[in-house]
Description:
There is one protein chain. The protein has ten helices and nine strands. It is of the alpha/beta class. Strands 1-2-5-4-3-6-7-9-8 form a nine-stranded mixed β-sheet, sandwiched between helices.
Amino acid sequence: MTDLDDYRAWLQSLPRRGAYHALSPHRPYETAEEGYDRDAAPSLYAGELLTGMLSAVAPGLSGLCLEIGCGTGYLTCGLVDAGRFERYLVTDGSERFLDLTRAKLARIGRLETVDFAVFNGDDLREIAFDRFALIALRSVLHHIADYRGFFAGLARRLKPGGVIAMLEPRAEFFLMTATLLGFLPALAEKDGAPLSAAELGHVRLFDATTRFYLDRTSDKTGAEDRYAFTTEELAELASENGLSFHRMGAEGKTGYGDDLVSYLAYCMSFPDELMAKVKRLLAQSARGIDETLKDLSPINASEWLLFRRA
């Protein structure tokens, strides 16, 4: 039997939950899934970008693809549209996210090679197939409490030459940003526009968030976002599981200054007046960081990482 035959036999053995295979119980996201779908139009950018990265690191890679945590399909559409793999198993813990992704794939006419399953990362043992060519995760690993055990489980489900590809937040970005923001109250006072109590609250929340993401000892049960990873931690994951490690850069090929502004505005919901102070008082320092790193890798909020099995 071929890998495709084995995959189909395993998939057919799974129970169904409505329109989807069921590896896990349905788990709705902590906020309404539609709120993450800022643009209902299918985007091919992220999937096309990852396909290009695979061509650089694993030319000729083919077979079966597993995507974990498809969300609104931002990665899925371009990945499936590129058509590099025989079949794609697209999963998420939320049926609503699967609905959103399926609708987008239908809009671009790319459903014929796609299977869907409800799957929560805590149930990795339920994936009884170990010949995936690609396991793709866009912003997923940092949600997993036992990320080391989970990553080791992914590595065991790769075929020889297979790749784990993931986009993950960088601890270095959070540490650098928390450090810069620590100077903001004094700079704003000197500028004659001191931070309000509410603005100080936003700054302190970012500092607390950074400390939480970098903490490796606290009980993080109940938290949705749990970690930001250092480069050393990611390299250790590769080494522990016999994989090569390739840093591929940010999704948007931006620098630290751009990511600083976009992350604080859109991910941390800093209000416009506070963002104006950030741009006015911290822009020079951010430009200095980018200038210092111009011949090296920038400090981005998140980065694509490829791990390849020999």
